[in-house]
From TrEMBL:
Coiled coil: none annotated. One of its GO terms (molecular function) is acyltransferase activity, transferring groups other than amino-acyl groups. PANTHER family: ACETYLTRANSFERASE (PTHR23028), ACYL_TRANSF_3 DOMAIN-CONTAINING PROTEIN (PTHR23028:SF53). Residues 8-327 form the Acyltransferase domain. The lineage of its organism: Bacteria, Pseudomonadati, Spirochaetota, Spirochaetia, Spirochaetales. GO terms for biological process: polysaccharide biosynthetic process. Keywords: Membrane, Transmembrane, Transmembrane helix. The chain crosses the membrane at residues 12-27, 39-63, 84-102, 144-161, 198-216, 223-242, 248-267, 274-299, 311-331. The keyword Transmembrane helix applies. GO terms for cellular component: membrane. It comes from the Bacteria. This is Peptidoglycan/LPS O-acetylase OafA/YrhL.
């Protein structure tokens, strides 16, 4: 569904999160460690940035569901698939080619990955995480696990609203129940279809985002901002005293990210320029393309026999990905427009 109001502050946040994810995977894949802050292997687990993406997705989805009449399932899921699948499939195919080039140039597949038909099928259908037919080790372009779980969340949202309408149950309680189920899956390390670590991370954050929408709508903004500032200050003091953060997943998901969202939303007027909309738009492309781009970058360095890696190199690579993402965004627009004209959603 199209959302009637666009929050440019959240667009800016998505861009910043995408940059952090690129830094995180750059250090993870290259194995480089810096003397200062490290985005992989340091005191802070920056991989939990994905939880903030889930929270934003849940927040915007709740806004969309509330602002328009509920539609039939085919229209609901087709709209989501047109948004996610075209570029995701293209990124999987390109990544598979990059992996083959990596093997030719360096003599092995990256990260021990092998390209197989079942693996390719699970990746292009976005089913390699969450359900009963795959796991994250099967994924080509593994950051797409976020999209695998996001699609499941969309289906659950429709199902919960269907149940709510027929049983006259307040859907907010159902959202909260799914959030608790996600927390349970993470806490107790469940490993069953549709309720495991990956889906647990997704459910807890996505449905927190949906619940957060109703909190943000009904609680006075001054109270929320005061709470957020206090919450972030408390997290900062505790991390200094303990030289780190205990249970970083829980702290980031339920304290830091909601507080950051509230503060940014309260400053929405500062983000009214269209440049923030564009930055938010390319964040999806940055997320999709930074891993295959990084392996191509490594191949290029190997051909030139460049063995050193620096923080400046990581920054320059990120700038390159931002430029490339603007180009990929134009391709995405053309693909989605073509699909929308060819597929009649009834």
């Amino acid at each position: 569904m199209e959302v009637s109001k666009r929050f440019h502050s959240l667009d800016f946040l998505k861009f910043i999160l995408a940059v952090i994810i690129i830094f995180h995977h750059f250090q993870q894949i290259t194995g480089v460690q810096f003397s200062g802050i490290n985005f992989y292997g340091g005191l802070i687990s920056f991989g939990y940035v994905v939880e903030c993406f889930f929270i934003i997705s849940g927040f915007v989805t709740a806004l969309g569901v509330e602002s328009k009449l509920f539609v039939n399932f085919r229209k609901w899921i087709t709209g989501k698939c047109i948004r996610l699948y075209p570029m995701a499939i293209l990124s999987v195919l390109v990544t598979a080619i990059v992996y083959l080039l990596y093997r030719i140039c360096l003599g092995k597949f990256p990260e021990g990955i092998t390209i197989g038909l079942w693996q390719l099928l699970n990746s292009v259908t976005l089913t390699f995480v969450g359900g009963g037919i795959g796991n994250i080790s099967l994924g080509i372009n593994n950051p797409l696990w976020y999209l695998c779980v996001l699609l499941i969340c969309y289906i659950i949202v429709y199902t919960l609203n269907w149940i709510s309408l027929r049983l006259t149950i307040n859907v907010k309680y159902l959202y909260f129940t799914m959030m608790v189920a996600g927390v349970s899956a993470v806490t107790y390390k469940l490993n069953i279809p549709f309720l495991n670590l990956a889906t647990g991370r997704g459910y807890s954050a996505f449905f927190l985002g949906m619940v957060f929408h109703y909190i943000y709508k009904n609680v006075p903004k001054k109270i929320l901002v005061a709470y957020s500032i206090l919450c972030l200050a408390l997290c900062g003091v505790c991390s200094v005293l303990k030289n780190g953060i205990d249970d970083q997943w829980g702290i980031f998901t339920f304290m830091i990210w909601p507080s950051v969202l509230i503060i940014l939303l309260s400053c929405e007027k500062l983000f009214s320029w269209n440049v923030f909309f564009m930055l938010g738009a390319i964040s999806f492309e940055m997320y999709l393309w930074h891993v295959p781009g990084l392996y191509l970058f490594i191949i290029f360095k190997n051909m030139l026999k460049l063995n050193t890696t620096s923080f400046l190199e990581m920054v320059l690579y990120t700038i390159l990905m931002i430029i490339i993402s603007f180009g990929m965004l134009q391709i995405e627009k053309k693909l989605t427009t073509l699909l929308k004209t060819k597929i009649v959603i009834r």
